[in-house]
Amino acid sequence: MTRLVVVSNRVSDPGPKGSAAGGLAVCLLDAMRDRGGLWFGWNGDLVAEESEIAISCTKHGRCTLMTAPLTERDYREFYLGFSNEVLWPIHHYRLDLARFTLEAGEGYRRVNARFADLLTPHLRRSDLIWVHDYHLIPLGADLRARGVGNQIGFFLHIPFPPPDILTAAPEYERLALTLLDYDLVGFQTASDQANFSRFVSEVLGGEIVAPDSVRLEGKFLKTGVFPAGIDVDSFVAMAEDPEGANKIRQYERHGATRLYAIGVDRLDYSKGLPEKFLAFRRLLDSYPENDKPMTLIQVASPTRDDLQAYVDIRHELEALSGKVNGKFGDFDWTPLRYIHRSVPRETIAVHYRASRIGLVTPLRDGMNLVAKEYVAAQDEADPGVLILSRFAGAAEDLQEALIVNPYDIDEVAHAMRRAIEMRKEERIERHRMLMKRIRQHDACNWMVSFLRALRSCRGMEDRPDQEKQLREI
């Protein structure tokens, strides 16, 4: 049987279902937990010197985790430097926050080459290799340089911006050329795919052969749109946990009349958190002085605290939440509950279920699985309302949500008021359609569709049992 080899910057423990934090970890864990394979990447540890780097392997059911540490220099240059001070802001349309250094660029190339050195001896000729996200864009080319002839696919979890933004990034032309060494490159949305094709055509001088194919310098590359998803049934079970529901009732000391909105994001400037707080303040301003329409619970888990941009946004959110609570709070009401720590996924699930509104308003996002988790968690007999940014990849599919412009705080405030006042019949119908969509694009279908497309890149026959085999990888 063909073995699936997944490569990502970080490797997450696939044991406890509530352990995943980021979107990449969520969809990979949900897709791989029951199917197994080899998952290779950084274990989160740091060592002083490159000579101290050693591979470790652990088994979790059918899944083998093969991990290695980074050096402290790698962390500064590859992870903080190029990945998160160059690629992350540029792909999220924030050229003003990009900080490029020659050392960071060299560190990015060095770590990708080392990943290829470490992984290559452990590969089998029949392995199907699936590389993930912006940290590892050149890994396919590095594997090819070491003689790896396997089928290799790449999936970008974050947005792919228009050519005029990418051309401002140092070295991006050379970096984009390495994508041509993959057999298949997958994107979250059709607009991301179109932006990539335009970049190959307009900047690199290549040719768009078809909507899903480009050619450059004798290399032919297939592309595709594969919206990432969640394990819907697993998340529904978490949300319906009786013990969690009892805890929620204990929290609601003032009765069932209190409405809640919830936001769950990593603390990142791409998530639109200051704008969300300002929109909530605008909502409160629109109600009479003694009317307490709703409480907003915002979970913002820490991330990249070593970067100044993240320190700045944390201070901004602390100040905004203090101002909102100082102006509107009362002895029996804290309007804005701001939680700056990681919260287990199963705890989040029951809070989603208890909230009338799911507020998912990033300024730019690849997909945003929080939107899908919120939908899955709802009570179908009395569901809440999803408010979703038009700049999240999920908005391309979840059209029954209230779609908003996150930069327009009046529009977001109006959407919150509309959700508060929405009749149950409308909420039920919207939720029914949203559930249908997230089941169509769940974690299993995401994996199966990508692997099927990857295999077909080299002319595999479309056999009737192919889907069954891919599901068993």
How would you characterize this protein structure?
The chain has 473 residues and is of the alpha/beta class. The protein has 2 domains: 4-229 and 442-471, Rossmann fold, CATH 3.40.50; 232-440, Glycogen Phosphorylase B (Rossmann fold). It is 42% helix and 19% strand. It is built from 17 helices and 16 strands. It has helices spanning 23-32, 72-91, 102-119, 139-145, 163-166, 172-178, 190-203, 232-239, 242-251, 273-285, 308-328, 345-354, 369-377, 409-421, 424-440, 443-456, 466-471, and strands at residues 4-10, 37-47, 56-60, 63-71, 128-132, 152-155, 184-187, 207-210, 213-216, 219-225, 260-266, 295-301, 336-339, 357-360, 385-389, 402-404. The chain has a 10-stranded mixed beta sheet, sandwiched between helices. Helix 1 (23-32) links the parallel strand 1 (4-10) and strand 2 (37-47). Helix 1 (23-32) packs across helix 16 (443-456) and helix 10 (273-285) packs across helix 14 (409-421). The protein is globular.
